[in-house]
Amino acid sequence: MPTVTVAEVVPADRSPIYAVLSDMSAFPRFMKNVQSVTIVERGEGFTRSRWVVKLQGATFRWTERDDFFPDEGRITYRQTDGDLKTFEGYWLLEPEGDGTRVILETTFEFGMPMLANLLNPVAKLALRENAKAMIRAVADQVTRSV
């Protein structure tokens, strides 16, 4: 399964970044590719969220379970239903210098083995660009509120 990992240093402490990342229903307000995020269930340390995202002109829909580990600066996600066979990964926040390294890792599988060689490289590029844009959008949100 292809995996995309993107990391960038954001000039802010971990706490405000984590606050922005854990409020996923707000993502559509500042992330252009995220059309909607609806929280369908909240529990102790987790949510189930329904997503609609546009990538390279295609619209993807899925429901995921998000598990929150604030003491570790980590959020994991795993698709439970949706357009892809597999879609999972994590956000990880690590101190670095005067800021925080924000890492977003995503593993995915389309579920069409015959098309994997054609689709995976394009999807990896699209996911990498989207991940970079998401981290920049989070950084903008954090630096605006500081």
List the helices and strands and how they pair.
Elements: E1 3-10, H1 14-22, H2 27-30, E2 34-43, E3 46-55, E4 58-69, E5 74-82, E6 86-96, E7 99-109, H3 116-145
Antiparallel strand pairs: 1-7, 2-3, 3-4, 4-5, 5-6, 6-7
Helix pairs in contact: 1-3
In words, what does this structure look like?
- The protein is α+β, with helices and mostly antiparallel strands and 146 residues long.
- It has one domain (3-145): Alpha-D-Glucose-1,6-Bisphosphate, Chain A, domain 4 (2-Layer Sandwich).
- Helices cover 29% and strands 49% of the residues.
- The protein has three helices and seven strands, in the order E-H-H-E-E-E-E-E-E-H.
- A seven-stranded antiparallel β-sheet has the order 1-7-6-5-4-3-2.
- Strand 3 and strand 4 form a beta hairpin.
- Helix 1 (14-22) packs across helix 3.
- It is globular.
- The termini are far apart.
- The mean pLDDT is 88.
Task: Please describe the structure with a list of short key phrases separated by commas or semicolons.
single chain, 146 residues, Alpha-D-Glucose-1,6-Bisphosphate, Chain A, domain 4, 7-stranded antiparallel sheet, 3 helices, 7 strands
Number of strands: 7
If classified by CATH, what would the architecture be? 2-Layer Sandwich
Instruction: Tell me the CATH topology.
Output: Alpha-D-Glucose-1,6-Bisphosphate, Chain A, domain 4
How many domains make up the coordinates?
1
Low-confidence stretches: none
